[in-house]
Specification:
The chain contains seven helices and six strands. It is α/β, with parallel strands linked by helices. It has one domain: P-loop containing nucleotide triphosphate hydrolases (Rossmann fold), CATH 3.40.50.300. The protein has a six-stranded parallel β-sheet, sandwiched between helices. The longest helix is centred in the N-terminal third of the chain and has 24 residues. The two termini are about 30 Å apart.
């Protein structure tokens, strides 16, 4: 496998990067990694604790280092944290070392998926939907900048989304640009 066989999933929290990533790894024969889980395994604490102790800047520095290591590997499927694209270095590593898939979800849809999840420090605010809208405005252009493939998550299940992605990956591997998809 070459580095171009690496698949990297980007998108806001709740878009399904981990779930879809696991399925893609199964279908493509790659080894699945989740950058957030890797950080938790290395530090021995959950991400909200890292945010509490080191702040977002400290967490982002850890995230950048972990993703640099993971993107140096071959044959992997990587689900990145929602804010990973804030780092120019991380965006460059993703772009250079694999196929980047942007799972795009509307803030409203992502709110429905994440509203009861207490393991998302950026959403522990008075108005989590407003925060998701703000994050979408800030990050959507960065996700699009690095993405080879963009898929709207919509309300379809992960199996359907995975089938669409496998078709788009086949187009890409055959030298054809995959169109954006709304699922």
């Amino acid at each position: 496998m070459s580095k171009r066989d690496n698949l990297y999933l980007v998108g806001l929290m709740g878009a399904g990067k981990t779930t879809v990533g696991r399925l893609l790894a199964r279908h493509c024969g790659g080894v699945f990694h989740d950058s957030d889980h890797e950080i938790e395994a290395r530090t021995g604490v959950k991400i909200p604790i890292i945010f509490e102790i080191e702040g977002e800047a400290g967490f982002r520095k850890r995230e950048e280092g972990v993703i640099a290591e993971l993107t140096a590997m071959t044959g992997i499927v990587l689900a990145t944290g929602g804010g990973a694209v804030l780092s120019a270095s991380t965006r460059d590593n993703l772009r250079k070392n694999g196929v980047v898939i942007y799972l795009r979800g509307t803030p409203e849809h992502l709110y429905e998926r994440t509203r009861h999840d207490r393991n998302r420090p950026l959403l522990q605010t008075e108005d989590p939907l407003a925060k998701l809208r703000e994050l979408y405005q800030q990050r959507d252009p960065l996700y699009r900048e690095v993405a080879d493939i963009v898929v709207d998550t919509g309300r379809q299940g992960v199996a359907g989304m995975t089938r669409v992605l496998l078709g788009k990956l086949e187009l890409l591997r055959n030298g054809l640009p995959p169109p954006d998809s709304v699922i």
